[in-house]
Specification:
heterodimer, A: 319 residues, mainly alpha, B: 611 residues, alpha+beta, 17% strand, globular
């Protein structure tokens, strides 16, 4: 096991190096200019824009810039954002709590809902409950978040005035009223994300259960005279949840990636929103930092998923 | 069998459920009860989804009250921008949003008001030739500063701060976005602690080129003293200062989350602190224009929404919420069609769109005239812009004094057809061809934007009526406006026959803008397509008239010449103006103060806003 982990970690370094070169090259080749907004403004002539590009180091070829970026990165220096002229790391740190709150909570809720629904759906296959659950998870999985988001906004915020449209990031929870406000403003974005995530997890849980239900050990358990509840919870669920756990672990880096569309729609200042506005503004240092953090997380959680598999499934041996 | 039938049932249910919300979304308010039904099953089946509901349910009455509370609170002001401010030092800003967010803290010597007149802010009065502030020969200007102005840290504002701002912004290493407003200065001297004399590098007819409007905001010397040059961006203390400038205006910074929210509080040292209306001001950025409009006009969560740049069809239902008013006026710029006078044919290789290659038929004035006459501006405005634009025949519309009254642009398709016949492009089966029988066809590009694709469609059908086939192209705005030399799809290279975008003069002086049609400014490979004359229009008579305008220092004569230059371009159809855009801001009923503004920030007078 230890050997396996060490080998994995050793492989991770070249992987990350290649990823960083690729992202950097793609960003450098992509068209765009951090000062594109000023392209037509006669008050900001081309000479000024060129000078600012030089100041940002954008006049150099991409491999020179990559060398500079990677050497300072190794020293823990993330550079400064072109649009806010302040250290990238500060901006990223500022965004993490909001993303963890909104995307993290919805992921948690989605797991808590999806597993029981998936189990019941499989056990009571083709019943009314299963039909409804299947049907809804198809809808949840296929409706894009900009559609559900806008619909929820239209219905619950504009029509019924139950929840606000604008997510206030300056709200500090000091008493019961502000706590209620905080929950209120989180309901819609969380709901949008829960609908989506529950859908896919439910499908996985259900199919994993269906794979296990007809197996011999289930019949043996029933033959021993165990009641249905025990058979399902102690035997089938425990076995079917293994692939789902892997899936959940692999989904965790996705939490840090934020929910680009939902965060933008509800004005949650999370990492997803930061990523998309930075791409729009050609703010390369921020885009680079975020994509690199995501790649590190993906590599780490892949490893964790592998290890967890070994722990939960005694048949798997890493040698 | 069982599986098959269950699939059929599921499919039918799925289709029904998918249609339902769609119908509702299209149907508007009346069937709004139905989508709740569609949404409910999700909650019912997914039991724990109910979890958030109970929390919401008891909060219901308060929720409505709370949503309304911040807006009706006379002591707080909430502003929504769909672009988020990222830096508060205006001299290193990267867009209007940053200038506007800085305006709440910092002040220039003078702001423009909605009538394009200067209003003194840090200046005691506006210098003119009459009061002796402006030198008659255009070599210098002397500003008297307001006495007793204090920075929010309690220190005095003096002439040194003005001089410092010039040194800071004009240093090439600072890479200030506003540098062109300061490199025109040769020297500034402090006549006394409250008077500065600016000497220009070259005599100028415009004495207000520096220290006015959003590009003229003055930084505190004490705070930025060590930030001149490269340090402006790389030094940690300077980076912190860029996010937290000390100012002289009515509000000072409380908290700034770059790319998200700026929160301001009353500045106790402001000269009229007793008249400051709000305890807190908040600018929240991000999202999109439509929901920002809804948050003001429908749910009253915010008091002011900036730049509702949405098509008429989306804007009208928002404004129908009745809780707000739109303020629109002045000019956000003129949406125009630029005609390529050079030949963009790809077969020319490197000579493509070079000024040396004349366009096969757009150089014919009759063809340009016919295209202009064929375009239905009325349809564009009525169907797409609504309150956000007016049909326009001039390329120079602001300030109002230079908006020519000598031009017309009524649609006349029959007249246009006649012109095409005269030009030697006879019609045959609804299409026109040149002498060699080659059919007339145009490539027409613009940026990707719902509104612009609507315009493209109207113009395409207009020109089809005229007998010209138009192929449309839409380019991502980030690419189209990037000026990136390595890409062919930029507006600078203009490898098409016509293109459309919005532009306008940046200040009340139109010289830099009108220079964009002179021969010297033609884009070409030689100047890396950065000249500014993307249509490659070149006319000696225009150049001569422009030279006369540039040398004229008398205000009245300058105005007359600016109008003459505009009329020249319009009569020659050098460019085809379509719409004067008046992108509106929405303000909540009861908020007093906001105005539209052409040459300055929409928040220019925020010190006097109140509810």
């Amino acid at each position: 096991m230890t050997q396996y982990i060490i080998r994995k970690i050793l492989v991770a370094f070249p992987t990350l190096l290649i990823i960083s070169v690729l992202i950097f090259a793609v960003l450098a080749l992509a068209p765009g200019d951090p000062l594109a907004q000023f392209a037509l403004n006669p008050a900001i002539p081309a000479s000024t824009r060129n000078r600012i590009r030089e100041q940002f180091g954008l006049d150099k070829p991409w491999y020179v810039r990559y060398y500079k970026w990677s050497t300072s990165m190794v020293q823990g220096e993330w550079g400064y954002s072109f649009s806010s002229k302040s250290p990238v790391i500060n901006i990223v740190m500022q965004r993490i709590p909001q993303t963890l709150q909104v995307v993290g909570i919805s992921y948690l809720i989605a797991i808590l809902i999806a597993i029981p629904i998936g189990v019941i759906s499989a056990v009571k296959q083709y019943t009314f409950f299963d039909q409804i659950a299947t049907f809804l998870s198809f809808i949840g999985g296929s409706l894009p978040s900009f559609f559900t988001g806008l619909s929820f906004m239209l219905i619950f915020a504009i029509h019924f005035h139950w929840f606000p449209i604008v997510y206030s990031t300056t709200l500090k929870i000091t008493d019961f009223v502000t706590l209620k406000q905080a929950i209120n403003q989180m309901v819609l974005p969380v709901l949008v994300l829960v609908v989506q995530q529950t859908a896919s997890l439910t499908r996985f849980m259900r199919s994993s259960m269906l794979d296990n239900l007809p197996l011999d050990y289930v019949r043996t358990a029933r033959a021993k005279g165990l009641n249905d509840w025990t058979v399902i919870t102690r035997h089938v669920v425990v076995n079917s949840i293994i692939p789902v756990i892997t899936l959940v672990a692999l989904g965790i880096p996705g939490i840090f990636a934020g929910a680009i569309i939902t965060e933008n729609l509800f004005r949650v200042n999370g990492l997803g929103q930061l990523l998309v506005t930075s791409i729009q503004n050609s703010d390369t240092p921020v885009v680079m930092a975020l994509s690199f953090i995501f790649s590190i997380l993906v590599v780490i959680f892949n490893m964790i998923a592998d290890i967890m598999y070994g722990i939960f499934d005694p048949r798997v041996k890493y040698n | 069998m069982q599986i098959a039938s269950s699939w059929k049932r599921s499919a039918a249910l799925l289709a029904a459920a998918l249609l339902l919300p769609l119908l509702v979304a299209c149907g508007g308010a009346a069937p709004a009860a139905e989508p709740t039904k569609a949404a409910e099953p999700t909650a019912a089946a997914a039991e724990p989804t109910k979890a958030p509901e109970p929390t919401a349910a008891p909060a219901e009455p308060t929720a409505t009250a709370e949503a309304a509370a911040p807006a009706s609170d006379p002591k707080s002001l909430k502003i929504l921008y769909w672009q988020a401010p990222t830096v508060l030092n205006p001299h290193v800003s990267s867009g209007t949003k940053d200038f506007d967010a800085a305006t709440v803290i910092l002040e220039p010597l003078a702001h423009y008001n909605e009538k394009d007149e200067l209003v003194a802010y840090l200046a005691e009065e506006i210098p003119t030739i009459e009061n002796g502030g402006v030198a008659k020969d255009g070599t210098s200007v002397t500003w008297k500063l307001k006495k007793g102005v204090k920075w929010s840290d309690g220190t005095d504002f003096t002439a040194d701060d003005v001089i410092f701002t010039w040194k800071y912004a004009s240093d090439p290493k600072t890479a200030a976005t506003t540098s062109s407003n300061y490199t025109i200065i040769k020297d500034i001297t402090a006549v006394d602690a409250n008077t500065v004399k600016i000497t220009w590098a070259a005599p100028t007819p415009n004495p207000y080129g520096s220290f006015v409007s959003f590009s003229g905001m003055i930084l505190q010397k004490k705070q930025f003293e060590n930030c001149i040059g490269e340090k402006a961006l790389t030094d940690a203390a300077c980076q912190a200062a860029n996010l937290n400038p000390i100012g002289t205006n009515a509000y000072m910074l409380k908290e700034f989350k770059p790319g998200d929210t700026v929160t301001y509080v009353k500045s106790p040292t402001y000269r009229n602190a007793d008249k400051t209306a709000f305890d807190t001001v908040e600018i929240k950025g991000g999202g999109d224009a439509t929901t920002a409009g809804n948050a003001v006009c429908q749910t009253a969560e915010a008091d002011y929404a900036w730049n509702l740049q949405v098509p008429k069809a989306a804007l009208e239902p928002i404004l129908a919420g009745g809780k707000c008013q739109p303020i629109a006026g002045g000019s956000f710029g003129v949406e125009r069609i630029v005609i390529n006078f050079s030949n963009p044919d790809a077969a020319l290789g490197k000579k493509r769109s070079e000024p040396s290659q004349p366009h096969p038929f757009l150089t014919n004035p009759k063809v340009r005239q016919a295209i202009n006459m064929a375009i239905d501006r009325k349809a564009i405005v009525e169907n797409l812009y609504g309150p956000t634009g007016v049909a326009d025949c001039n390329i120079l519309v602001v300030p109002e004094s230079v908006n020519s009254k000598n031009t017309t642009c009524e649609r006349d398709i029959e007249g246009a057809k006649k012109l095409m016949d005269e030009a030697g492009f006879p019609e045959k089966d609804g299409a026109r061809a040149d002498k060699d029988g080659k059919p007339l066809a145009l490539y027409f590009q613009t940026s990707i934007n719902t509104l612009r694709q609507g315009e493209q469609a109207i113009i395409k059908s207009n020109l089809k009526e005229l007998g010209i086939a138009v192929s449309l192209k839409a380019v991502d705005a980030g690419v189209f406006f990037s000026g990136d030399v390595g890409i062919d799809d930029t507006l600078n290279k203009m490898y098409v026959d016509m293109q459309m975008y919005t532009n306008g003069p940046d200040g009340t002086d139109s010289a830099a803008y009108l220079e964009g049609w002179t021969c010297a400014k033609m884009n070409s490979a030689e100047n890396k397509w950065n000249g500014g004359n993307d249509g490659r229009y070149c006319n000696k008579d225009y150049d001569a008239l422009f030279a006369k305008y540039k040398a004229e220092f008398d205000t009245a004569k300058r105005t007359a010449l600016a109008i003459e230059l505009n009329d020249f371009l319009i009569k020659d159809n050098a460019v085809i103006p379509l719409v004067n855009r008046r992108t509106p801001n929405a303000i909540i009923n009861g908020l007093v103060g906001p105005t539209y503004n052409t040459f300055d920030s929409g928040l220019w007078n925020i010190d006097s806003w109140h509810k």
